[in-house]
Design brief:
16 strands; 6-stranded parallel beta sheet; alpha/beta; 10-stranded mixed beta sheet; Rossmann fold; 450 residues; UDP-N-acetylmuramoyl-L-alanine:D-glutamate ligase
Length: 450
C-alpha cells in the first residue's frame, strides 16, 4: 500500500490546484466521502446523533462540508468549532467526528485544541469516533480514520499509530502520478504467492541451502536460533558454522568456524554471535556469490575504526544488511539515530547498493532503487535478546526458497517475524516471550499471509 508524507500530501493538493482542480472541489469530495462512509457504516443515519469538531484548517473545512450534507438527515447534529466559546456537548451522541487537526499539526498541542481532544476522548461514552484524514495530533483515540488518497506516514510511524482504529482510504480524485512517494506499507496479502502449496514431488534440494556463520564461544545460542529459524521458515537444508555444535538442533548440519566451505550453498547469513572477526567476514563477503544476510557482529566489522561512514558496497538486493539503530549509527559514523529514519535508510541503501532492513519500531526495508517499505508488525515483547537472530534466520530461509524474488522474501520475513511476536505476546504476555517462542507462532503468521 502506498504511503505519503504530510509534505507530499500537501504538494499533491497544490499540484491538483495548478492543474485546474480548486481546493474547494477537493474539500467537497472529501466531505462527500465522509458522508458516504457514515451512511454505509452507521445505517440508518436517521437514527444517529452526531457531533462534529472542526478546526480552522482544511480538516475543519472537510468537517463543515460533512455537516452540510448531514443536515436534516440525522436525529441531532452539533458542530463544535475550535473558535467557539465553551458550550455544552451532546453527550448522548452516537458518532463523534474529529476534524480538528490534519497533517499540518505541530507538537505540543495546547489550549483549546488540547481541551477539545480531551473532550472527544472522554466525554462521549456512547459514541464511535471517526477521524478525518488522521486523528488530531495522533492523540484522538479513533475507532475509524477516513484518510484521503493514501495513508500518511505519520499514521504508520507514530508510536500513537494504534489510535488510527480501522483505516479507510477514500479516493478524492488526486492523480496517481502525484502520489509517487517511493514509500510503501507492507501487508500480509502482499506475500500470498510465497506460501502457495508446494509441488507434491518436491525435495529438500528445491528449497535452498543456507549457511549460517556465527556462534563464537559463549554465543553459540545466537547461531543455533538463527539456523533453526531458517529451517522453520522452510529452507531445505541449513548448515551452521560455529564454535560448538552442543546447542544445535539435530536437524542442523555443522561446520567449523576455521574451515568454512561455501560450495553448494545458496544463501550465506553471517553475524549472529560471531564476535569481531573482520578477516573472516571480509573473506566470506569477497568469496560469496549468493544472496548474503549480514547481521550483528558482521555489521560491526563493516564499520570503520576512525568513526566515519563505512565504505562497504554490496551487490544490490542480494546483499541484505539488518542493523538495529546502534549498529546503523556505527555504519554511518554518526550518533545513534532516532529521527529521519526514512531518508537516512533510503540514502544508505542507494549509496551502498544494499537492501537495508533498519530494525526497530516500524522497521524499514530500503532498496537500492530508493524505494522504502514500512513494516507495521511487531511487539514490545520482542525487545529481548535473540529476536534479531531469529530474523536473520527467517530472512535467510525465505530468500533460499525465493532467490529470484529477494525483495519480496525479505519484506515477508520481516512482516512474519513481527506478526509472530504479536501473536506470542497475546498468548504469553509481553514480558514472558522468548526469542524462540516466535518460532512457535510462525505457522499462524504464515497462514495469515495465505
Amino acid at each position: 500500500m502506498r504511503v505519503v508524507t504530510s509534505a507530499q500530501s500537501r504538494a499533491a493538493d497544490l499540484a491538483m490546484f495548478e492543474r485546474g482542480t480548486p481546493v474547494e472541489t477537493l474539500m467537497e469530495r472529501a466531505g462527500g466521502c465522509l458522508f458516504e462512509f457514515l451512511e454505509r457504516e452507521f445505517s440508518p443515519l436517521a437514527e444517529q446523533r452526531i457531533v462534529i469538531f472542526c478546526g480552522t484548517g482544511n480538516n475543519g473545512s472537510d468537517g463543515q462540508v460533512l455537516a452540510r450534507l448531514l443536515e436534516r438527515r440525522v436525529v441531532e447534529l452539533q458542530v463544535v468549532n475550535v473558535t467557539d466559546a465553551a458550550i455544552a456537548y451532546d453527550r448522548d451522541a452516537t458518532i463523534v467526528v474529529d476534524a480538528l487537526l490534519g497533517t499540518g499539526f505541530r507538537e505540543p498541542v495546547e489550549g483549546r485544541f488540547a481541551e477539545l481532544i480531551r473532550a472527544i476522548n472522554e466525554d462521549f461514552p456512547k459514541a464511535k469516533i471517526v477521524a478525518v484524514d488522521l486523528p488530531s495530533a495522533m492523540q484522538v483515540r479513533a475507532d475509524y480514520t477516513v484518510t484521503f488518497a493514501a495513508p500518511k506516514a505519520e499514521m504508520v510511524l507514530s508510536t500513537r499509530a494504534h489510535n488510527i482504529g480501522k483505516l479507510i482510504v477514500a479516493d478524492i480524485g488526486i492523480a496517481a502520478d502525484l502520489l509517487e512517494s517511493g514509500l510503501e506499507l507492507s501487508e500480509a496479502r502482499d506475500f500470498h504467492g510465497l506460501f502457495a502449496p508446494r509441488p507434491v514431488d518436491a525435495n529438500k534440494g528445491n528449497f535452498g541451502h543456507v549457511l549460517l556463520v556465527g556462534g563464537d564461544r559463549g554465543k553459540t545460542g545466537a547461531a543455533a536460533m538463527s539456523g533453526l529459524a531458517a529451517l522453520k521458515m522452510g529452507a531445505g537444508l541449513v548448515t551452521v558454522a560455529c564454535s560448538s555444535k552442543a546447542r544445535l538442533a539435530p536437524e542442523l548440519m555443522t561446520q567449523e568456524l576455521g574451515n568454512i566451505d561455501l560450495k553448494r550453498k545458496t544463501v550465506l547469513a553471517i553475524g549472529p554471535g560471531l564476535g569481531l572477526r573482520p578477516k573472516l567476514v571480509f573473506r566470506l563477503l569477497s568469496e560469496a556469490t549468493v544472496p548474503t544476510v549480514i547481521d550483528a557482529d558482521a555489521l560491526n566489522c563493516l564499520a570503520k575504526e576512525d568513526g566515519t561512514e563505512t565504505d562497504f558496497r554490496g551487490r544490490g538486493v542480494q546483499t541484505i544488511l539488518t542493523p538495529h539503530p546502534g549498529e546503523m549509527a556505527r555504519l554511518l559514523g554518526a550518533p545513534v539515530m532516532e529521527h529521519d529514519r526514512i531518508p537516512i535508510a533510503r540514502a544508505f541503501a542507494k549509496k551502498h547498493d544494499v537492501c537495508l532492513v533498519l530494525k526497530g519500531y516500524r522497521s524499514l526495508i530500503a532498496f537500492p532503487d530508493g524505494n522504502v517499505w514500512i513494516n507495521p508488525s511487531g511487539s514490545p515483547a520482542m525487545a529481548k535478546g535473540g529476536a534479531g537472530d531469529i530474523l536473520t534466520g527467517l530472512i535467510g530461509g525465505l530468500v533460499a526458497q525465493w532467490p529470484n524474488d529477494i525483495g519480496l522474501a525479505v519484506r515477508a520475513a520481516v512482516w512474519i517475524h513481527g506478526r509472530a511476536g504479536e501473536l506470542a505476546a497475546e498468548a504469553l504476555t509481553e514480558q514472558c516471550v522468548l526469542a524462540t517462542d516466535l518460532l512457535t507462532y510462525l505457522p499462524r503468521a504464515i497462514r495469515e499471509c495465505r
